[in-house]
């Protein structure tokens, strides 16, 4: 019954706005060549997916996560936007979305820190996996057929 009550309060509108919805609108206003815009979009989408797995980004509205992700992508790729670089890009993005520069900068820095932590964990996992495979003498061939047609029932 609670679900119905919530749905009625929402007037059965279950579509919510997510950070990815803001990407095309923000990217359209940035002075980027089309090929670079696609690259920034892909990186920003990756950052947004990373933010979705970290509870610390719940406090930011989706537009801030999208803007911070674009800023982190541009910063990580080392792009300059028609003479804008570093702080100026953050100010440009804040102007486009009407957000506070300090809040945007904090969000972007958290995104970059989350990426660094994620890469660190992935590297440690890879090292542990390599150590385990070396301890077991590498991969041993199994007796499992590689093709379904090789199975005799």
UniProtKB/TrEMBL annotation:
The keyword Nucleus applies. Residues 17-136 form the Cyclin C-terminal domain. GO terms for cellular component: cytoplasm; nucleus. Gene3D superfamilies: Cyclin-like. InterPro entries: Cyclin-like_sf (IPR036915), Cyclin_C-dom (IPR004367). SUPFAM superfamilies: Cyclin-like (SSF47954). The keyword Cell wall biogenesis/degradation does not apply. Keywords: Cell cycle, Cell division, Cyclin, Cytoplasm, Nucleus, Phosphoprotein, Ubl conjugation. Residues 139-153 have a biased composition (Polar residues). GO terms for biological process: cell division. Residues 132-153 are annotated as: Disordered. It is found in: Cytoplasm; Nucleus. Its main location: cytoplasm. Belongs to the cyclin family. Cyclin D subfamily. This is Cyclin C-terminal domain-containing protein. It comes from Zosterops borbonicus.
């Amino acid at each position: 019954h609670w679900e119905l009550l919530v749905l009625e309060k929402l007037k059965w509108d279950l579509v919510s706005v997510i950070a990815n919805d803001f990407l095309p609108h923000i990217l359209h206003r940035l002075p980027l060549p089309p090929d670079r815009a696609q690259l920034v979009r892909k990186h920003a989408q990756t950052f947004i997916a990373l933010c979705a797995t970290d509870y610390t980004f719940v406090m930011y509205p989706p537009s801030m996560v999208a803007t911070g992700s674009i800023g982190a992508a541009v910063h990580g790729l080392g792009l300059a936007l028609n003479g804008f670089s570093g702080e100026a890009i953050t100010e440009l993005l804040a102007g486009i979305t009407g957000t506070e520069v300090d809040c945007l900068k904090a969000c972007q820095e958290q995104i970059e820190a989350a990426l660094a932590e994620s890469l660190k964990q992935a590297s440690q996992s890879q090292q542990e996996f390599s150590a385990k495979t070396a301890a077991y003498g590498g991969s041993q061939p199994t007796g499992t057929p590689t093709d379904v047609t090789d199975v005799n029932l």
